[in-house]
Design a protein that fits this description.
alpha+beta, 6 strands
Length: 156
Amino acid sequence: MSYDLKAVIAGEEILRTATRDLCAVRLASIGQGLSLMPVTDALFEAVADGGGDSASESRRLPGGFEKALAGWSAGGPVAYVEAEYFGGVGEQWAAVWDAGAIVLAPLHVEEGEPFPPAGSPISQALRRLGVATRAGEDEFSAVGLDRHRHSEAWIS
């Protein structure tokens, strides 16, 4: 079984306002006042400027996309998350911007590497967005990111 997620996550109103002029955007509510925006090729084309390398470690943030994330964060924190797993083995990447600046430096856990005591990169990013958990669950589970196995399924 595989799991593939590439998405921007933020407060529903933050994403709705930030992306109102982008026709390539579809949002999915994930609870706790947050929405998920799957990152598609069409979205990249709409916001990427074709500029130089991204300042982050993600190979999936083309020039211009980090600027868009920083700009969108003017209204509140915005997270970019990636997860790729196959057969329970994989990697995660996450970062958070707020008020135009990166506030959670890119976190990356590679294949075979254990999660740090603070939790997975995505859980740490969600925590930064204010996700609350119950006993025995992490932030990833609290907002149901396990409901769909692929990014596109959130908007289909």
